[in-house]
Design goal:
Mean pLDDT: 77
Number of helices: 5
Radius of gyration: 22 Å
Strand content: under 5%
Largest sheet: none
Amino acid sequence: MGERRGVYRVLVGKPEGKRWLGRPRRRTEDNIKMNLQELRCRGTDWIDVAQNRDRRRVIVNAIMNLRVPQDAGNILTS
């Protein structure tokens, strides 16, 4: 294996740059799982939900209702 090949450099090389300090950033997948836990859908596989349009629409609407304050309509009409 030649020293210039990418596979060799990955195998024996040292990464350049610095790693971020602290906790890793949250991924989109993590946010989706947290939202499902908030709705008490812990046994639900989020990939299955994403593939079922009707079920996904129900869950997204429920999550959006959690995020919007109940008085939002009164503030806008004042």
